[in-house]
Amino acid sequence: MMATVLRCDCGTPWSECVYTVQRSGVHRWLYYRCPTCLREWTIQEDVPDKADPVTSGEVLEVHRLAEGGDLSELFR
């Protein structure tokens, strides 16, 4: 199975883009800037509550990503 590579509108992979992370209690914002075209965009993610129990599906997903060698996606 091939992993989808996210890209800027100009075609530069997100892994080559510069980003900054800002966190609050319930949200995390990732501010991206493309080094090629200088386009900027923001992604908001919900931060999981660390007090919530981990589901078996989440454990299996971590193992799937680790076995596939997609460590960049695993650590996001």
Structural class, please? alpha+beta
**Gyration radius, to the nearest Å?**
15 Å
What is the molecular shape? flat
**Strand share of the residues?**
25-35%
Total count of strands: 3
The DSSP helix count reads: 2
- The low-confidence runs, each spanning 5 or more residues with pLDDT under 50, are none
Largest sheet: 3 strands, antiparallel
State the helical fraction: 10-25%
Mean pLDDT: 81
Account of the protein in words:
- This protein has one domain.
- It has two helices and three strands; from the N terminus they run E-E-E-H-H.
- The mean pLDDT is about 80.
Provide keyphrases for this structure:
26% strand; 76 residues; 3 strands; single chain
Sum this structure up briefly.
The chain has 76 residues and is of the alpha+beta class. Helix content is 21%, strand content 26%.
SSE topology sketch:
Layout: E1 18-23, E2 27-33, E3 40-46, H1 56-67, H2 71-74
